[in-house]
Amino acid sequence: MEKIAVIGGGSWATALVKILSENKSQVHWWMRNRDDVQHLIQYKHNPRYLSGVGFDLNYVKPTNDIEAAVAVADWVILAVPAAFVQQVISLLPDNSFKGKVLVSAIKGMIPGENILISDYLERHCIVPNTHQLIIAGPCHAEEVALEKQSYLTIGSHDLETAERFCELLRNRYVKANPLDDLDGIEYSAVIKNIIALACGIAHGLNYGDNFQSVLVSNAMLEIERFLHRIMPMHRSLSGSAYLGDLLVTAYSQFSRNRTFGNMIGRGYSAKSAQMEMNMVAEGYYAVQSIYELNKTFQLDMPITTAVYNILYERISPAVEFEILKNKLK
Ligand SMILES: NC(=O)C1=CN([C@@H]2O[C@H](COP(=O)(O)OP(=O)(O)OC[C@H]3O[C@@H](n4cnc5c(N)ncnc54)[C@H](OP(=O)(O)O)[C@@H]3O)[C@@H](O)[C@H]2O)C=CC1
Ligand SMILES: O=C(CO)COP(=O)(O)O
């Protein structure tokens, strides 16, 4: 039986635990809240995220002890929002990840340091990138809970390990495929969240589908420019880990980033939108990181710049989108 630690108690962690435990892996599931762990043990449901999903406790071991969860596992899945990664890892002794495969389910960057999760793990936790995987692809936790057909891409520098992990995920409603572009899909997943914020803002400002289609196609060019500059290699950006993930986040009713953007477009402040949503929109933090990185590259990234100006320079969304609309083609 494969032993997997899942770190995080939010919606994506909950969906991944469902997939893995139904495939009869043993999942040591760490979440920070003691009451949530007790609730899971007593009622076999996560009380606050995807609460309709039931768990078989023969395979799922909920815990507040992160050190014990990681110690017994061969695979460690990080599924907390990027902003909390450092805080969560600081709970572990040094070298806790030695000999394990680290799997990031996170679509965000370390705020302030402006680095990817894989770079953070390599630099600060000494996990070589050959021992790292990223879970990517267009997939909302809410649709996993409903067992709707979904596709995941597992990014890695080591396709054999990626394929082994794919086997742990595949089931009746999940297809999983390996891809040798760890950093490219990680960056693409970060930027698509910014674009989904922009789509939400546009919707909140009452722009229509005609505008959004141009916004999304221009966004693909923005992603292409960025990846080509920072991580050049031959890749097909129309693949589901890139374009597919952008589309689901830009259009889905389940997207946290789109929902957050919609509130901003309708006049909420970032703080009140965050409070109302009670879930994390990674794009809010990511736009600052990508904007900062682009100060060095000076790439043409009008959508990222517009979202940054709205969220961090407090420029009115209507004014910023007047400027943006003249830059799109
Ligand atoms: N949801 C989805 O469909 C998908 C999400 N992802 C990615 O997964 C990652 C996790 O997001 P998701 O599961 O959606 O998150 P949610 O928004 O569903 O939940 C937020 C999580 O963050 C936790 N949290 C809040 N503050 C802290 C803190 N200070 N320290 C530790 N944990 C904290 C919350 O814990 P608590 O409940 O105790 O407050 C909760 O578990 C993100 O990078 C996201 O982009 C990727 C693909 C799909
Ligand atoms: O990455 C996702 C779907 O693939 C989740 O996006 P949101 O965080 O915007 O819901």
From TrEMBL:
GO terms for cellular component: cytosol. The keyword Lipid metabolism applies. InterPro entries: 6-PGluconate_DH-like_C_sf (IPR008927), 6PGD_dom2 (IPR013328), G3P_DH_NAD-dep (IPR006168), G3P_DH_NAD-dep_C (IPR006109), G3P_DH_NAD-dep_N (IPR011128), NAD(P)-bd_dom_sf (IPR036291). It is found in: Cytoplasm. NADPH binds at residues 11-12, 32, 49, 107, 141, 256, 280, 282. Pfam families: NAD_Gly3P_dh_C, NAD_Gly3P_dh_N. Residues 181-318 form the Glycerol-3-phosphate dehydrogenase NAD-dependent C-terminal domain. It comes from the Bacteria. Pathway: Membrane lipid metabolism; glycerophospholipid metabolism. Belongs to the NAD-dependent glycerol-3-phosphate dehydrogenase family. This is Glycerol-3-phosphate dehydrogenase [NAD(P)+]. The gene is gpsA.
